[in-house]
Design goal:
- This protein is α+β, with helices and mostly antiparallel strands.
- The protein has one domain: Jelly Rolls.
- The chain is built from 5 helices and 12 strands.
- The strands form 3 sheets. The chain has a 7-stranded antiparallel β-sheet with strand order 1-9-5-12-4-2-3. It has a 3-stranded antiparallel β-sheet with strand order 8-7-10, with no helix packed on it. Strands 6-11 form a two-stranded antiparallel ribbon.
- The longest helix is centred in the middle third of the chain and has 18 residues.
- The model has no long low-confidence stretch (mean pLDDT about 95).
């Protein structure tokens, strides 16, 4: 379904300006491919891993609509280092629904992390946050998500509009299958302004200055009742100084 509110894409040359002035930047898939750089074949190979995501066992609303994996890294310029597997933790200040919990998700698949495109992807997003905050090591959490309509409705952000307690959030739209809804909403953290749009294009990218904006994604539903649909994303968070939870 095409949203009434069309995505406000910016050119590659306007990413830094958009982040600095508006708190977010949205890139077309073709620009993402040039930016990383990455071929469609490389990106397809990475996305293939989303067909093997375990169910999220921590959903407090009792839902069965979310599958995910989680891995952590340190990115320092072009150097990308995996860290020992660790729990995902957020304070209640940033996640009123699931904050304060040690959530141990299965790690991302080793064969995906070994793909050359993976390191380039983490490093390039690191360049974007370094332009915003200054060059330094970044503590990165990577989340592979599939939200589906097993329960008739899927909630990409069951916690509602939120910040993540980091410096930058990167949301790669990987694909939508037989769904409607899933509208992205970005609002000023300390003001009245906001924008609404639906990410439709596989491998388009939304970058968010997490210190300036809050964000959410509305629920998804199947295009036809009783059929299974899903929405795949790769979410990366970049934080200075260390991981949340120590």
């Amino acid at each position: 379904m095409t949203s009434e509110f069309q995505p406000p894409y910016v050119p590659l040359s306007g990413v830094s300006s958009a982040l600095q002035t508006g708190g977010f930047a949205l890139l077309h898939a073709a620009d993402v491919q040039r930016w990383l750089p990455a071929s469609p074949t490389e990106l397809d190979a990475l996305h293939a891993g989303w067909n093997d995501l375990p169910p999220d066992a921590y959903l407090k609303d009792g839902g069965r609509y979310r599958r995910r994996r989680h891995s952590c890294f340190v990115v320092d310029g072009a150097e990308v280092s995996a860290v020992p597997h660790r729990a995902h933790w957020q304070p209640l200040e940033y996640n009123a629904l699931h904050g304060g919990m040690q959530r141990w998700f299965e790690p991302m698949q080793p064969e995906l992390l070994a793909l050359p495109v993976w390191g380039r992807l983490l490093s390039q997003v690191g360049e974007a946050v370094s332009e915003l905050r200054g060059r330094q090591p970044w503590f990165v959490e990577a989340h592979s998500f599939r939200i589906d309509t097993t329960d008739g409705i899927g909630r990409p952000t069951p916690e509602g509009a939120h910040r993540d307690g980091v410096d930058l959030v990167a949301v790669f739209m990987l694909g939508r299958h037989r769904i409607k809804g899933g509208e992205s909403r970005v609002f000023e953290a300390d003001g009245p302004n906001g924008q609404r749009f639906t990410l439709q294009e596989p491998w388009s990218l939304l970058l968010l200055d997490d210190q300036r904006v809050i964000h959410e994604t509305t629920p998804i539903q199947p295009v036809e009742p009783g059929t299974l649909g899903w929405r795949d994303t790769l979410v990366l968070t970049y934080r200075s100084g260390g991981f949340q939870g120590g």
